[in-house]
Every structure is written in structure tokens, then in C-alpha cells.
Design a protein that fits this description.
This is Nitrite reductase (NAD(P)H) small subunit. The chain has strands spanning about 10-15, 25-30, 35-40, 45-50, 65, 70, 75-80, 100-105, 105-110. With about 110 residues, it is mostly beta strands. Strand 3 and strand 4 (about 45-50) form a beta hairpin. The protein binds FE2/S2 (inorganic) cluster.
């Protein structure tokens, strides 16, 4: 990457990591659609568009387990890092990931 090119990403502070319980999620409204921000049991943070690629279920209301979430509508499991379905449903769709950073305990979501 050219060091003289500025990062075009705008970063928005959407709250503290500790605002989200372990194995929990939070819905963050955005102009481009809701974002689901997840905190796993080991404290990692992930962000996906809050619409399941199957039929649009709200992933922020799913069950977080490991580094995955199970959609509340039809119980398909999605990898939080890639947004792709897991197991037998792999390859049937992908929830777009959302860029994020964690700085000083704050969650920053990116948009370009
Ligand atoms: S809408 Fe998510 S599994 Fe069907």
C-alpha cells in the first residue's frame, strides 16, 4: 500500500466492548443498514451486516457460540470472521463483514 494514500475508511465509535456481554450481540443502526456486533466468549469482537443471507433473519438476535452465530429464524450457523454458513450449509451465502477496530476498549466500525 502506498504510505502517502490516506485510509479512506471513516471510523465510528459505537460503544465500549464491555457494553456487549460475553457470547452476546448488539444491533447498530447505520445508513447502509443495521450492523450486528458480536462479542464471543473469549472476548473477541466481530461485525456482520445484520441480515442472514438465507432469508434476512436478524443475526444480532442469534445465539453466539465459539466464533459463530446461529440465526434465530432457521438455525443455520454462520462463521463470524467470514460471514459464511458453516457445516452442510457452507457455500449457500455470505453475510458481508463490516470493518472494525478496537481501541482503548472502544469498538470502531468502518465504512468507505
Ligand atoms: S433467515 Fe437465517 S437461517 Fe433462515
Amino acid at each position: 500500500m502506498n504510505a502517502h494514500v490516506k485510509d479512506p475508511t471513516l471510523w465510528t465509535d459505537v460503544g465500549a466492548v464491555t457494553d456487549i456481554p460475553l457470547r452476546g450481540a448488539r444491533r447498530v443502526p447505520s445508513p447502509r443498514g443495521d450492523v450486528a456486533v458480536f462479542r464471543t466468549g473469549d472476548g473477541r469482537i466481530f461485525a456482520l451486516r445484520d441480515a442472514c443471507p438465507h432469508k434476512g433473519g436478524p443475526l444480532s438476535q442469534g445465539i453466539v457460540h465459539g466464533h459463530a452465530v446461529t440465526c434465530p429464524l432457521h438455525a443455520m450457523a454462520i462463521d463470524l470472521a467470514s460471514g459464511e454458513f458453516l457445516g452442510a450449509d457452507r457455500g449457500k451465502g455470505c453475510a458481508p463483514t463490516v470493518p472494525l477496530r478496537v481501541e482503548d476498549g472502544r469498538i470502531l466500525l468502518g465504512s468507505v
